[in-house]
Design goal:
Elements: H1 2-17, H2 25-40, H3 47-77, H4 82-107, H5 118-137
Helix pairs in contact: 1-3, 2-3, 3-4, 4-5
Amino acid sequence: MLFVMGLWELLACYVTFDPDFTIDRVNKQFVPISQWFVQIFNTSTDPTVLSGLARMFQVIIGLAEAIIGILLLLAVFVRKHRLALANLGLSLAAALFGAFLLTMFAMHDKNLPAWNQYPAIFAWIGITWMMVKADCALPSGSRPDE
C-alpha cells in the first residue's frame, strides 16, 4: 500500500508539472481556483496576478506531492523508521487531499474535475496507515519478510 501510494504521489507530481502528459492543470484547474480565491478576498483579478497565483499553487502542490511520494517510498524500504516516515507522509497526504476536498466542495464548480474521489482517497490513506501501524506492532521475527 505504501509503495503504490508513494508511486502514485510521484506520478501526481509529474502530472502537476508536465502539462503535456495529461491535461494542462494550470489552465484547467489552478487558474479557476485562483479566480475563486481572489473573488473571495476581493483582490485583483488582473490576469498576471491570477497566473502568478496559479503557478504558486502548482509549485506548492507539486512539491508536496513529491515530498509525500519520497517519504512513503522511504517508509517502504527503511523498516527501522517505517512508522515515523509513514506517519509523516500519510499526514501530509491527508492534509493535501483535505485542502483539495474542502476547496472543491466550497467552490462546487462543475467545470472542475469531480471532487467526490477525495473521500475514497482519505479511506485509502487511513487503511494504509492502519496496515503500517499493525505491521510495526508485530513482534520482531514474526513478519514474513524477516
